[in-house]
Amino acid sequence: MDFGATWIGVGQDEMYALCKEYNVSTFAQPEEGKSVQMLCGTRGEYSGFIPPMSYLGLIDTELAIRKCDAIAQTIDLKEPWNSEMAEYYDSVTVEQFIDQQIWTQDCKATLTMAVKTLYCKEPSEISALSFFFLVHSGTNMKILCEIKEGAQQDRIVGGSSTLPKAIYNQLKDKAKWVLGEPVDKIQILPNEEQLVQVYGRSGKQYTARKCVVAVPPALAARIQWDPLLDATRDSLLSRSSAGSIHKCIFRYKTKWWVAKGLSGVVVSDHGPLSYIVDHSMKLPDGSEFIGLVGFCVGKDSIEIRNLPLEERKKRMLQHIEKAFESKEAWNMTEFYEHDWASEEFSRGCYMGNLPPGIMTQHAEHCDYMRLPWGNVYFAATEFSTIWSGYMEGAVRSGYAVAQEILKKPQPNPLPLIGKEFGCPLELNPPKVKNLKRAKKPSSSSGFWVALLVAAVAGLAYWKYQS
Ligand SMILES: Cc1cc2nc3c(=O)[nH]c(=O)nc-3n(C[C@H](O)[C@H](O)[C@H](O)COP(=O)(O)OP(=O)(O)OC[C@H]3O[C@@H](n4cnc5c(N)ncnc54)[C@H](O)[C@@H]3O)c2cc1C
């Protein structure tokens, strides 16, 4: 059913390669028909990437996308905190950036909705530096947001869990597996080999020469560590917070939206559902699941959390009815929802990120988050430079850690607590380059204003002529 990660798309080569290697098929996300937008109090149907809006809004949006892509390209993927203008972009939220750089309400609403859906957080809590890193890491804005030729292009037959299950089936006899055992404590034993003792919740203990902690950063910080993680690493891991989502699936008997010429895609600047998309698929028994999936994200997810289930459902169905202008919305046969922030082993989604100011404040030590702690290694999508926040990033991070362990199979030295930085001495802290103490970029140069005026005049002339 895919309550979690669903799509793979353009540039996610390792995911496609794994699907091929393990004989797992993919299919294209259905997208035939028009999309619906509900922005700035209006409803409209449209084809293409950018929802319909005023001419000024269209120009503004096109320029905003170019601007975001251009800034994103300046962000160093390995050390975003050392990028040109890093300090400035980390000092403003995405909301402030939008307010300063975007002129029209249409464009503001569109960008706000896109960022909120990408993060499951409000733009007011996201560092602009973190946002531009995400854009660069996922190639560009269009690829991040698009279905066809974008990150939402394909789905895995049988759901995304088919892939890890296929990998497990091939490897299950080649290794000892312990599944369903939460880890509460990790201890690095004070012996010569620096063996790692892992304490399961069942009371069982496991000893290893090397240990990979492949959980979101904030959850790594919640594990009990002996010796204690150094303060800098702990402060970074624990401040990496994920957003909120109620991912909801609505099952129907027919694709009634297709009969209306609609693709199922709805983008909205108000809750409860910021994004709706067709979730239909073939089931393993050959039957077809027909339905829509809705993303209730950020403050909308927080707002509905404590409402009774029936009330949550009612609000969502009202939203679907309004979006598709159809009472068919209420003919839903089944409803499923997953609140990821309430999930003990996720505590939010889609990925953790650092709030404004934290990356550059810790610039000299930011890399500690992903460096080994003695014989303990850290892997997670958050630590990937490419497609960070996505399944692709998780796979790449896993490969990077595996390579590191294979390169250096001998024990790592004991993680002593350093006097100067409160970090392991032997990690050779990455040297900070000269931080660019950048100034705020100009929001509207004369060139853009002139271009805008010329474009509006051109459009008005063309409209008048036709
Ligand atoms: C609703 C939703 C939609 C998403 N959509 C997409 C999408 O369409 N495409 C995409 O590419 N990505 C998507 N993502 C993001 C994607 O799921 C993540 O990027 C990816 O799963 C990260 O992998 P990971 O291995 O780093 O961490 P996780 O997938 O979080 O894996 C960590 C594992 O560790 C376990 N764990 C946690 N704590 C402990 C503990 N103490 N002891 C033992 N085990 C523990 C967890 O149960 C989990 O199995 C989505 C995520 C969500 C939540």
Task: Show the helix and strand layout.
Elements: E1 7-8, H1 13-21, E2 26-28, E3 34-39, E4 42-46, H2 55-73, H3 86-91, H4 94-101, H5 105-119, H6 128-137, H7 141-145, E5 154-156, H8 162-171, E6 183-188, E7 196-200, E8 205-208, E9 211-213, H9 217-222, E10 224-226, H10 231-239, E11 241-243, E12 245-251, H11 256-259, E13 262-268, E14 275-278, E15 281-282, E16 288-289, E17 291-297, H12 299-304, H13 309-324, E18 334-339, E19 349-353, H14 358-361, E20 376-378, H15 391-407, H16 446-465
Parallel strand pairs: 3-13, 6-10, 9-20
Antiparallel strand pairs: 1-5, 2-5, 3-4, 6-7, 7-8, 11-19, 12-17, 12-18, 13-14, 14-17, 15-16
The site of flavin-adenine dinucleotide (FAD) has 27 residues, from strand 12, strand 19 and helix 15.
Question: What would you note in describing this structure?
Answer:
The protein has 466 residues and is α+β, with helices and mostly antiparallel strands. It has 2 domains: 7-157 and 245-342, Polyamine Oxidase, Chain A, domain 2; 181-241 and 348-427, FAD/NAD(P)-binding domain, CATH 3.50.50. The protein is built from 16 helices and 20 strands. It has helices at 13-21, 55-73, 86-91, 94-101, 105-119, 128-137, 141-145, 162-171, 217-222, 231-239, 256-259, 299-304, 309-324, 358-361, 391-407, 446-465, and strands at 7-8, 26-28, 34-39, 42-46, 154-156, 183-188, 196-200, 205-208, 211-213, 224-226, 241-243, 245-251, 262-268, 275-278, 281-282, 288-289, 291-297, 334-339, 349-353, 376-378. A 7-stranded mixed sheet has the order 4-3-13-14-17-12-18, with helices on both faces. A hairpin with a 5-residue loop joins strand 15 (281-282) and strand 16 (288-289). The radius of gyration is 24 Å and the shape is globular. The termini are far apart. Mean pLDDT is 90; it is low at 417-438. The site of flavin-adenine dinucleotide (FAD) has 27 residues, from strand 12, strand 19 and helix 15.
